[in-house]
Amino acid sequence: MKKMIALFPGSFDPYTIGHYSIVERALPLFDKIVIAVGVNRNKQSLMSEEKRVEAIRSLYENNEKIEVISYDGLTVDVAKKYGARYLLRGVRQVADFEYERNLAEVNRNISGLETILLYTLPEYGHISSSIVRELASYGKDVTDLLPPGMKIPKKQE
Ligand code: ADP
């Protein structure tokens, strides 16, 4: 049987406890999850792409089911390159749902890739990278919003 590989694409600037929770819950569903850090030229970033990849890799260094990569370009092309037949995404509220629905539709149309959506746990529904970025830029402690053991720079780089 073909391996069940999922690509979890995102900006992950930074990778939050919400993202972490989605991956933890998706792990039993797949043989492998490739976390793909996308380069977004339109967003001002808190952490460089290399730092994001490094921080996420160190979280999962003992987990051989997870690979962390960075990419620039179309998500479906990266999925193909890594043998992923599924895209993993998370949904918090209605706005996410609408957005994810369009994205899933486009990705399925252009490549046949199916998107697997997991609803957030209620306790993480309010957490977004942009809120973490904003708090961190004012020097606030964001430890509780990040995966256990992860650290990010307090001020903009
Ligand atoms: P993008 O810029 O591609 O939306 P993000 O890094 O913001 O990338 O998010 C990646 C995925 O994780 C998206 O599907 C997003 O909806 C989901 N996500 C973000 N925050 C949470 C959270 N707190 N709970 C569940 N899913 C989340």
Automatic annotation (TrEMBL):
Per the UniProt record, the site (Transition state stabilizer) maps to H19
Q: Which GO terms describe its cellular component?
A: cytoplasm
Q: Briefly state the protein's biological role.
A: Reversibly transfers an adenylyl group from ATP to 4'-phosphopantetheine, yielding dephospho-CoA (dPCoA) and pyrophosphate.
- For the keyword NAD, the answer is no
**Cofactor dependency:** Mg(2+)
Q: What is this protein called?
A: Phosphopantetheine adenylyltransferase
Which domain of life does this protein belong to?
Bacteria
List ligand-binding residues for substrate.
Answer: S11, K43, T75, R89
Could you tell me which Pfam families the record lists for this protein?
CTP_transf_like
Q: Which gene encodes it?
A: coaD
What organism does the record attribute this protein to? Answer: Candidatus Limisoma faecipullorum
